[in-house]
Design brief:
2 copies of one chain form a homodimer. The first copy, chain A, is of the alpha/beta class. The first copy, chain A, is 37% helix and 25% strand. The relative contact order of chain A is 0.19. The model of chain A has no long low-confidence stretch (mean pLDDT 94). The interface between A and B is large, with 56 and 56 residues.
């Protein structure tokens, strides 16, 4: 399982960024997101709602105590930070890890202890940018781009790619079983 | 030149997402971002401020009329949308384009005409996620990851990658000229 741990959500201010973290985690192949910081039912429901309509088994959790969670996590802790080691230098090692992984993303203020608790502190470039971007690019490199072609089972709607315009179809489960 | 056009910024609501779009554009190798929608001086200043401290020649512009801008743009228009063609199918063609490119990203509501104006409508996966993620992954694929190792000239500060913790140094221009 690949979990994403999103640190320090702030209600209101982080609404859209935290939502994007959840959607990116799902779309780029993680199995679940765990939010810490403010408990924000509405924001989490909006991520669950997308997961429900667009398919797959993505899960959304809330965890009050991130430190306790990470201390008892049985698997590797991967922290994405602009201060860490270049992703290209470590991605092959990460890919070979057996067992669960949790990918930790900030958060306005990342506690210093996290750098020590993490098995890997990994930088997606050394420039300031975005936890949303860091998560997407990390997962894309981890899965070598294959995650973008993944089919999400039990989707209620799906996109049919177009050169121009939009095509979204409702998935008729009975029909698709027949074909 | 590679421009990013960020459609329909809304003051307040989109503050953090639009800021992340600007930082991602810069960090992943674009030359400039152009914001449309609400004029938001403070948000644009915050992106410029990062560009100033962390180096390079990244530019930030505002454009009231996106349609007029795109109509007179002399180069290729690349629109990132979950409804478009898979990025893997077109990225090699995009890489070979000579001349300027503008990468267009939404915005809550993307006008239907944009799909027709665009030379390419490209999907970073067929799932709903984030314009910040789409932009980062697109640029990372365009530059084959090399953008992450780029040095930004005239930086006032830079990161020295660490296995644990943070190391940021102030760049002493006189000294660095000597060494």
């Amino acid at each position: 399982m690949i979990y994403v741990l999103r640190l320090g959500h702030r209600k209101g201010r982080d609404l859209r960024i935290s939502t994007h973290c959840g959607l990116v985690a799902r779309a780029f192949g993680a199995d679940a997101i765990i939010y810490t910081g403010d408990y924000d039912k509405k924001m989490m429901e909006s991520v669950k709602d997308v997961a429900d309509r667009w398919g797959g088994n993505f899960k959304v959790f809330y965890e009050k105590q991130w430190k306790k969670f990470l201390s008892s996590f049985e698997g590797k802790i991967i922290h994405l930070t602009m201060y860490g080691l270049p992703v290209d230098a470590v991605i092959n090692n990460i890919r070979e890890i057996r067992g669960d992984k949790v990918i930790v993303i900030g958060g306005e203020k990342v506690p210093a202890e996290l750098y020590k608790m993490a098995d890997y502190n990994i930088a997606i470039g050394k420039q300031p940018h975005s936890e949303v971007a860091a998560l997407a690019v990390f997962l894309d490199k981890l899965f070598k781009g294959d995650e973008l072609n993944k089919d999400f089972e039990n989707a209620k709607i799906k996109v049919i790619p177009q050169e121009k315009g939009k095509k979204v179809v409702e998935v008729n489960r009975y029909k698709s079983k027949q074909s």
